[in-house]
């Protein structure tokens, strides 16, 4: 390397300008483009979150409108629950038919209605019934409301609902009072 030159055959002043230009370019990238890229990523995330909220509000809007109509009509009133009464032997023998009629009345498909006779053992005053139905969420909700209106209804032990939309399979275990 000859004296007075650097970077091969470049004169020292040109090499200095090249280094300064490269430094300015690196500084521009580090101070301008990288933060701008980060800011754009943050804005993309905000847009995705906002889009999700808009979709969520769109899905909830029909429910809101239904509730608003109920409120304008004077509000919803809770139905008066019947007095609790245990199932007699005749009602227990007709239980599957009775529940099947309630299921059909609410617009669901009856899959199975199975009383659990072992739940009545050892002086128990309660009868467990396994119900498997198929239908939409609205109809399943209506069915649960009809169950609660039964005089012998005690409680709902479990409710297993198949995920998805539209008609779903639902398995319910309920307890009814028996005499």
List the keywords.
179 residues, alpha+beta, Alpha-Beta Plaits, 4-stranded antiparallel β-sheet, 4 helices
Helix and strand topology:
Blueprint: H1 12-72, H2 89-93, H3 95-105, E1 109-116, E2 126-135, H4 137-148, E3 153-161, E4 168-177
Antiparallel strand pairs: 1-2, 2-4, 3-4
Your description of this structure?
The longest helix is centred in the first third of the chain and has 61 residues, at 12-72. With 179 residues, this protein is α+β, with helices and mostly antiparallel strands. It folds into two domains: 1-77; 89-177, Ribosomal protein S6/Translation elongation factor EF1B (Alpha-Beta Plaits, 2-Layer Sandwich), CATH 3.30.70. It has helices spanning 12-72, 89-93, 95-105, 137-148, and strands spanning 109-116, 126-135, 153-161, 168-177.
Please give the domain count.
2
Tally of contiguous helical segments: 4
- Average pLDDT works out at 86
Please give the radius of gyration in angstroms: 35 Å
CATH architecture annotation name of the largest domain:
2-Layer Sandwich
Alpha-carbon distance between the two ends: 110 Å
- pLDDT < 50 runs, ≥5 residues: none
Question: What's the short story on this structure?
Answer:
With 179 residues, this protein is of the alpha+beta class. It has helices at residues 12-72, 89-93, 95-105, 137-148; strands spanning 109-116, 126-135, 153-161, 168-177. The chain has two domains: 1-77; 89-177, Alpha-Beta Plaits.
């Amino acid at each position: 390397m000859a004296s007075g030159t650097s970077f091969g055959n470049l004169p020292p002043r040109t090499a200095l300008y090249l280094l300064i230009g490269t430094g300015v370019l690196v500084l521009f990238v580090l101070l301008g483009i990288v933060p701008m890229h980060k800011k754009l990523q943050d804005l993309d995330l905000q847009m995705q979150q906002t889009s999700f909220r808009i979709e969520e509000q769109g899905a909830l809007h029909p429910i809101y409108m239904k509730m608003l109509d109920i409120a304008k009509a004077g509000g919803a009133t809770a139905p008066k629950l019947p007095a609790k009464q245990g199932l007699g032997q005749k009602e227990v023998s007709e239980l599957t038919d009775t529940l099947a009629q309630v299921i059909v009345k609410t617009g669901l498909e009856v899959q199975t209605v199975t009383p659990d006779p072992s739940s009545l053992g050892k002086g128990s005053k309660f009868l467990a019934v396994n119900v498997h139905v198929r239908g939409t969420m609205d109809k399943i909700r209506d069915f649960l409301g009809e169950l609660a209106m039964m005089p012998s209804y005690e409680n709902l032990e479990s409710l297993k609902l198949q995920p998805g939309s539209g008609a779903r399979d639902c398995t319910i275990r309920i307890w009814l009072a028996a005499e």
